[in-house]
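Good morning C.,

I know you're traveling, so I'll keep this short. The sequence:
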Amino acid sequence: MSCKRVHAIVHGRVQGVFFREYTKRKAQELGLEGWVRNLPDRTVETVFRGEADLVAVMIQWLYTGSPQSDVTEVDIKEEEPRNESVGFVIRH
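The tokens, ready to paste straight into the viewer:
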């Protein structure tokens, strides 16, 4: 099992459309750990970690997002995996 950690910034209409809640649900469904939060510039930031193939599924999901969102761009950066056994949470 290969572990991967990704840091992503999601651009578009992603605030006020339940993007964080849907991100949390999808990450939990995939068994990923990490967090998601809104940024002041109206983007959404998320970090998630887990099996490489499941992380790839999550990355693909970010391009669609919640049903009411309109994602225009996703900036992805791979990071060194850390042991963050926190589940997946919404940060405020």
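Safe travels,
E.
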